[in-house]
Amino acid sequence: MARLLFILIFGGTGIAILVSLGTWQMERLAWKEGILAEIETKITADPVDLPASADPEADKYLPVRISGEIGERALRVLVSQKQIGAGYRVISALDTGERRLLVDRGFVRVSEDIPAPPEGEVTITGNLHWPDDRNDSTPENDVADNTWFARDLDQMARELDTEPLLVVARETSFSDAPVTPLPVDTASIPNDHFEYAMTWFSLAAIWAAMTAYFLWRTRKTAKGDTA
Question: How far does CA 104 lie from the centroid of its chain?
Answer without folding.
Answer: 16
